[in-house]
Design a protein that fits this description.
Blueprint: H1 17-28, H2 40-53
């Protein structure tokens, strides 16, 4: 539909090396699976959701010291 998946809002979020590698691999191979949206934090949320749907294990951790804002 017209809704976004959960995503880390703001300039501070951390992803694992394996997630970064999967996103990089998709981009460098020209995969149309990962769309680039106007806000990078929303793009990352969409990308992670798609990785989950492909069976990639994702474990979200909320660190209060970073003041997470999940939308």
């Amino acid at each position: 539909g017209n809704t976004f998946p959960s995503y880390a809002h703001g300039a501070g979020y951390v992803v694992s090396r394996s997630i970064a590698e999967q996103c990089h691999l998709a981009w460098t191979t020209g995969s149309p699976v990962l769309p680039l949206l106007k806000a990078e934090d929303i793009s990352m949320g969409v990308w992670i959701q798609r990785l989950q749907k492909q069976g990639f294990p994702i474990h979200a951790v909320h660190e209060e010291r970073m003041r997470p804002h999940m939308k």
